[in-house]
Amino acid sequence: MAKVIGIDLGTTNSVVAFVEGGKPTVIPNAEGSRLTPSAVAFTQDGQILVGQLAKRQAILNPERTILSIKRHMGTNYKVRIDNKEYTPQEISAMILRKLKEDAEAYLGEKVEKAVITVPAYFNDAQRQATKEAGIIAGLDVIRIINEPTASALAYGLDKEGSQTILVYDLGGGTFDVSILEIGEGVFEVKATSGDTHLGGDDYDQRIMEYLIEEFKKREGIDLSQDRMALQRLKEAAEKAKIELSTLMSTEINLPFIAATQHGPKHLSVTLTRAQFEAMTRDLTERTREPIYRALSDAKLDPSKIDKILLVGGSTRMPAVQRLVKEIFNKEPRKDINPDECVALGAAIQAAVLAGEIRDIVLLDVTPLSLGIETLGGIFTKIIERNTTIPVSKSEIFTTAVDNQTSVEIHVLQGERPMAADNLSLGRFILDGIPPAPRGVPKIQVTFDIDANGIVHVSAKDLATNREQRITVKGGTGLSKEEIERMIKEAQAHAEEDRRRKEEVEARNQLDGLIYTAEKLAKDAAGKVSQDLIDNLNKTIEEVKSADKTGIDKIKELTNRLNDAIYKVSTELYAKAGTQQSSNNPSGSQQQNPGGGTIDTEYKVQ
Amino acid sequence: MEEELLSEEKENLPAEDIELVKQQYKELEDKFLRLAADFDNYRKRMVREIEELKDVIRVELIRTLLPIYDDIERAFCSIPENTDNDIREGIGMVLRNFQNWLSGQGVKAIEITDNVFDPRYHEAIVIEESRDIEEDKIEELRKGYLLNDRVIRPTMVKIIRKVKEGE
Fold first, then answer.
1. Which residues contact A510 (CB under 8 A, 6 or more apart)?
2. Does CATH number 1.10.760.10 belong to domain B107-167?
3. pTM over 0.80, yes/no
């Protein structure tokens, strides 16, 4: 079956995506880039260039290079080239054809059908024109969908029940805000607003102007007259803007930006995020009014918006995110790449219409980790969260004390390192373990989650093959909210949990050491001087009765005990060593005299 | 023996049940085959994509290093040529080391050969007009580079147009 693609036909850039294995994926163009500039050029020698190539020659050929044709869709506007007129849909078709061909080259198969997105405010004529553009490009446009709807689909909001969402889309050159109502898989646009000439390019421009101004102040040279310098400034400005989304300050160094009679001049400016935000505050603030306009058109106040989606590359700027958060008093969703969100949603719609999504076997995952309680109340995970089910995993455990004949298996679910902080699913006892020193018995614990999410836990003593099992209805018992709460709690307590776990582990280690020490005191009796044995026994008693709270205290006790053990074992081995050498005084002579033995071995073969 | 048992069972099952089971079996087999095929394709694509990813990472790294290379080149060019200058010589060596590293990575500079603007390799940023030339010319402002015949940065050029008589 031929693949169906989703296309975000943008004003400045376009993106194409498809669904593979149930997941939408962006298709890179022939130049290897995920974004294709929505630019078309007619060269003097009759070639048509689309995308990056069209942009590269734009200055050479301005009257024959068409940018932002989307602004003219559905109007009578015509592009005149060499006495031939082109409609906006014909120009758009050239962009669509390149996207189609690049997708075909990437997928290695023909692409005939597509879903194309348009702004929510597009009227019938504009939508019709978009559809026609698709047909001219040789695509069967199976549906035109709204850009904010595509974003909501990319975020999977159609599966989350009735809600009202706001999509804040700040792209390279346009700003759109849309309010959607989602219910029963139906999307209704309640209001749209925006600013057709506001975007990331304006932010770059501000930084450039600032750099030019600074350089003029310092060196008295106007860089705005030098095309090469301007190009370097533009690249540096965009880089600085991107860096300031993650860093608090950035250094802009452009050595040899200008030359004078007195030698070369360099530009060196440090720009802080605060400075950048101050010089672009009015741009960010310009998005506020359209938001309120859309809210008032939809007759809603900010508290009635359930979710806010941030779309468009410029929403990566912290100032933009802050403004949205301030208006809605809510954290906006921004986890999907904002440049690709619309195309990904279009691809999902395309796959649904083509029936591809239905064909996929839906695989479930365990929402929380599963495991058992081990020595000292530690939660030992057997199956990690987000593991695809059905799945089965086993681990071998052992006993904690000598002659332990039964073990209790306490089954838990959760993300916290200590058992007590997680949800108990049940417990059972495996008995009949033959008496043995601690650490010797092998108990195999197996977790098995079937396709329905039901968890079977079994414990088996590998020596006797005695087995006990329990079946619990797994993750299904918890609501989505409870699961999210548990994951959040685990994150919130991560540091304190880690310390607690460390302490318990240290204490377990100390207990193990006491056991070793007691055994050594018995074994070494009579073989080393009694003083050392007495000292070891004294230390053991002291350590046993000492207060074992706090990791430092435990470590100190461990060191003390280790010292006492070390003294005994050193003497023990020293004596054993002299004994051995007296028993075997000619040890060195026993070595093989040469290669002869090896030869013999070969001959035997 | 086993066959006998099976045929006996078959006889006991109503025909419509057998049909249903057959249909369900077919559906499941289809689903399984699709999933197996999907997974196989996914595996193949992953192998391909990891290969491509290596390239993408390399291209990205080289692309971010190129402006620094440009700066060193600018520093070198700003020292007058005729001076017998140890600093010039030293920076020249730094530049050559960098150049050697680039060519070791498979990076090649784009050469302007026949004075014809080609948007596949060139990006025009300035246009000038001149009466003193025979025909249109292009002049390199910043070097462009190829990696395995793919443009990682186009050459930035100035276009000089010949002004015809009477213009």
1. A543, A548, A554, A557, A558, A561
2. no
3. no
